[in-house]
Amino acid sequence: MSTTHHEVVIVGAGISGICAAIRLRDAGVTDIVVLEKAETYGGTWRANTYPGCACDVPSRLYSYSFAPNTGWSRVYSGQAEILAYVDAVARDHGLDDVTRFGVAVESAAWDGPAGRWRIATSAGDLTATYLVSAAGPWNEPKIPDVPGLSAFPGEVFHSARWNHDYDLRGKRVAVIGTGASAVQFVPEIQPDVAELHLFQRTAHWVLPKLDHPVPGPEQWALHNVPLLAATVKRLEYSMMELVGLAFHRPRPLMHALQALGKAYLRAAVRDTELREKLTPAYLIGCKRILFSNNYLQTLGRTNVEVHATGVRSVEGSTVVGADGTAVEVDAIILGTGFHILDMPVAELVRGADGRSLAEHWAGSPEAYLGTVVSGFPNAFIVLGPSLGTGHTSAFQITEAQVSYIVDAITAARAEDLVLDVRPEVQQAYVDEVQAALEGTAYNASSCNSYYRDANGRNSFAWPWSSSALVRRVSRFDVAAYTTASATEEVPA
């Protein structure tokens, strides 16, 4: 039976996959297929539809440079508006012609003698000269291993799989997890529920969100006066870069930001006992900073109780905290985050030696420039390891990586080459990143965040400015690679 071949297979139709497909086609690479397991575009913004879901980066920074949006309705736009934008960009650029929805990748293995990737999907087998993983880390829910959770008789769902058919009105609800998603949905559901029990293993720093609707005249001016739009965008970018500088130079900038966090907490929460529960014991920045104008205030409502403990077990309808707290509830909502550093796609992709990406990483993901991994020829990862900033737009990171990928693929296809990054180049880069992370807020010793992998290493954060990220990550250099003719077998 014949197998369909494409020059490039892109896995995922979120912001990264859309960007890669558009830019590759612009560069003349037209034999492309985008495989998307869901039924529409959007990735993160398709998966996360919970009440209050919104961006925590200013909207003007949250769009493609080749498709700027000056019509955002808020300073920080909501999920539906972002999804509509992403979907419109994909369709306006004709990606419907190359996208196959409802197709899940089951495995991908490098075939050295053939110089191509063999890909098994839910809709049949494919081969590809180049494989681009744009699966993204913010759509695969992390479900906690809590004894008894699976036997809970009520309703259970993760924030990224929100059950909009379940009526929360009048229900007793337990929320497990207090990260970025919970900060947004808790204020939205609190007025409807009878009781809201928030299980908080670790307090988070919360800062006010400078958000407001963009009035019509301002939208008109931003759309019709290019210089104004560029100036406002540059100002917002500079403000975010100042936050980034604080991450890299915790003293005194991050300490000043922490003082603001303490002042905001004092103003928002008058109850001293509750405020003590909500006061973090770590340096701001070593966990993701959260932004909200109503989360802290909501936690003081009469139908809300904050349990400053993790969850030990679920016994029937009762959620039991690690400190022995026991509450009976009708529903459990999990705000427990995602598989960020243990991306499921890593289990599915096998390199030149037959081992999976997950086996190569052994709990500590690493990639040269966050994009390519030695032993995985002609393969690329978008939003890979060590590219997280905590303050800037994923669009900026994605576009830098896609520029690199486009240059790499166009250079390789011009010479009919197979590219495999040199292991010593990758190792030198990883060592450089890890050394630079020392002394940053990301690596503060006072907390344990999702930035740290299974081995305790920070495999998430980028230790320099976002402008440095763009300069470095977008530049392809063939000297970093071993190269072979596509007709030659690449050694394992």
TrEMBL record:
InterPro entries: FAD-bind_Monooxygenase_sf, FAD/NAD-bd_sf. PANTHER family: FAD_NAD(P)-BINDING DOMAIN-CONTAINING PROTEIN-RELATED, L-ORNITHINE N(5)-MONOOXYGENASE-RELATED. This is Cation diffusion facilitator CzcD-associated flavoprotein CzcO. It comes from Nocardioides thalensis.
